[in-house]
Amino acid sequence: MFSKAFLTAGFLLVIAAGSAFAQEGDYAERKALAEKLATVNPVARMMESAVLRVASEWGLSEKEKFQREMMDNLDIAGVEKTSVQAMADTFTKEELEVMLAYYSAPEARKIAEKMPVYQGLIQPAIAREMDRVLMKLRTGYEAQMKGAAPPPATP
Predict the structure, then answer these.
(1) Which one of 51, 62, 78, 149 is CB 3.0 to 4.6 Å from 70, fit for a cystine?
(2) What is the pLDDT of residue 74?
(3) pLDDT at 154 over 70
(4) Digit-coded pLDDT (tens) for 14-71
(5) Cα–Cα distances in Å, from 63 out to 32, 111, 112, 126?
(6) Rounded-to-integer distance, Cα 79 and Cα 91, Å
(7) Ranges of each domain in the chain
(8) CA-to-CA distance for 107 and 114, rounded, in angstroms?
């Protein structure tokens, strides 16, 4: 019994070590793919979109000035470097290849540009539904607490 468990544990360790080695072994390829991905789907585009959302949410009268000042002061190169590193550390070579193929398609840029609009349209419905269920659960939990025995006193 002991030897079977020991062999199983050893086998799992070998598989895990092999997987980690494979992940480390193709790091240069993953980083190169992440760098290519950063050129077809730049972080700067996402950052600019976020700046525009903030300008709209704040109701600024000088949105263009705000956008220009924000973009001039953001460390886009630093965030880009962090993004490439995070992609290479997070995704497999195969996943990066799929993302590169996707974001290289012209339709993908249009989808990426429309995604904040879609999210803005769906977010209120998600928030309403979450609030509705939270209130329902809260009411149920409050009723349970009223009927529950008080916790024992601690000396």
Answers:
(1) 51
(2) 95
(3) no
(4) 444 444 444 568 999 999 999 999 999 899 988 888 888 888 888 888 888 998 999 9
(5) 36, 24, 22, 28
(6) 18
(7) 22-104, 106-148
(8) 11
The pLDDT value recorded for residue 23 is 54
Report the SS3 class of residue 48.
Answer: helix
Q: Which amino acid is at 121?
A: L
Residues 6+ apart with CB under 8 A from 103: 37, 40, 41, 109, 112
CB under 8 A, 24+ apart: contacts of 79-86: 79/43, 79/47, 80/38, 80/42, 80/43, 80/44, 83/34, 83/38, 83/43, 84/31, 84/34, 84/35, 84/38, 85/31, 85/34
The pLDDT of 98-123, averaged and rounded, is: 88
CA atoms within 13 A on the CB side of 83: 21
Question: 20 is written with which tokens?
Answer: 């980690």
